[in-house]
Amino acid sequence: MTGFRTLDDIGDVTGKRVLVRVDLNVPMSDGAVADDTRIRAAMPTIRELSDKGAIVLLLAHFGRPKGAKNPTQSLSLVIDGVADVLGHSVMFIPDCIGEGAKAGVAVLAAGDVAVLENTRFHPGEEKNDPAFADALAEVGDLYVDDAFSAAHRAHGSTEGIAHRLPAYAGRAMEAELKALDAALGNPAHPVAAVVGGAKVSTKIDVLKNLVGQVDHLIIGGGMANTFLAARGVDVGKSLCEHDLVDTANMIFDAADKAGCTIHLPYDVVIAKEFAPNPPTRTVNVHEVAANEMILDVGPAAVEALADVLKTCRTLVWNGPLGAFETPPFDMATVALARTAAALTREGSLISVAGGGDTVAALNHAGVADDFTFVSTAGGAFLEWMEGKPLPGVDALKA
């Protein structure tokens, strides 16, 4: 993506102290890192800077300590996990600002990697206090942001510091920005968006933004029931936000004006109880009984949606089509994800997906590696889909 300085622009870093904002907010189990996905995502940047002789200083938050020191949320707990992925020892520095941080950094040599203590141990971090950003900047010579997942927060270590030191996007951030630009910034049309999940209320801004950006909006999950209800369909005891029917109608109207086609399921998989493998029926949406609930999109609708994707050049995906964690209500999500993956493999579709449930659903379908790009950023990805500015990204603009 143009307009952002990357590691290609950074010049000679030998012996320079490079503060690298990464995402080390990883799940833990029995005192050890349980999932190192976020650590692995930062490795290309860490290794590149280390190999070029930089002193690599990792900045991150861990949990929500609310501006106070808390030993259960110390980044010392993730040091072994970082060292394991990196393949050599990593130093821990017990503060991220002040004399303690400077003293720890002073003993490091070119190529060394260290993790500084949780930035959120200081109240100035989440407040984006200028004095805290100044103190952070004193610890380093250059700043690299490789944490897109924190880019929607205007914090000291994500936004404030970028105005005080030469600032660059790391390799993971660069890949994310390029993928997002290809998906909605400057996409190849026609563009399709799949938006699923339980509630319209959590995705109103996403839907409002997308109808003006995409050619096809595919709505699934519990959200689709609210849109079906707005069209006069009786959805029985399905999850449905009846108080948002007017909002759904407003989105239908906006889509009409923008020339965006909204796709809703016309056959659905229903059951009388939400449990694994209950008795189910596949019916037309107008045949849902009062004591039944819609739990997945039906096979005929999935086939029609697959045909839509075959006409598209770009796909943005956020949220499952059905209650995919509970079998057999994963079938529509898996089938459409596999179609998107096949189209991506053959080179006819650029596919970008993001959000926690989405990543889990694509992994469940076995196709996450086949999508063009899968973002592990939850809140930041959603705010990008809403069309909102991301402070941590804007601060990197050249």
From TrEMBL:
Catalysed conversion reaction: (2R)-3-phosphoglycerate + ATP = (2R)-3-phospho-glyceroyl phosphate + ADP
GO BP: gluconeogenesis; glycolytic process
Keywords: ATP-binding, Cytoplasm, Glycolysis, Kinase, Nucleotide-binding, Transferase
Record-level GO cellular component terms: cytosol
E.C. no: 2.7.2.3
Main location: cytoplasm
Subcellular locations according to the entry: Cytoplasm
UniProt cross-references to InterPro entries, sorted A to Z: Phosphoglycerate_kinase, Phosphoglycerate_kinase_CS, Phosphoglycerate_kinase_N, Phosphoglycerate_kinase_sf
Pfam families, per the entry: PGK (PF00162)
Entry's Gene Ontology molecular function annotations: ADP binding; ATP binding; phosphoglycerate kinase activity
Pathway connected to this protein: Carbohydrate degradation; glycolysis; pyruvate from D-glyceraldehyde 3-phosphate: step 2/5
Binding site for substrate: D23, L24, N25, R38, H61, F62, G63, R64, R120, R153
Residues annotated for (2R)-3-phosphoglycerate binding in this entry: R38, R120, R153
Binding residues for ATP: K203, E325, G355, G356, D357, T358
PROSITE patterns per record: PGLYCERATE_KINASE (PS00111)
Enzyme class: transferase
Keyword Nucleotide-binding: yes
SUBUNIT field: Monomer.
PANTHER family, alphabetized: PHOSPHOGLYCERATE KINASE (PTHR11406), PHOSPHOGLYCERATE KINASE 1, CHLOROPLASTIC-RELATED (PTHR11406:SF23)
Database matches in HAMAP family: Phosphoglyc_kinase
Family: Belongs to the phosphoglycerate kinase family.
Protein name: Phosphoglycerate kinase
Upper lineage: Bacteria, Pseudomonadati, Pseudomonadota, Alphaproteobacteria, Sphingomonadales
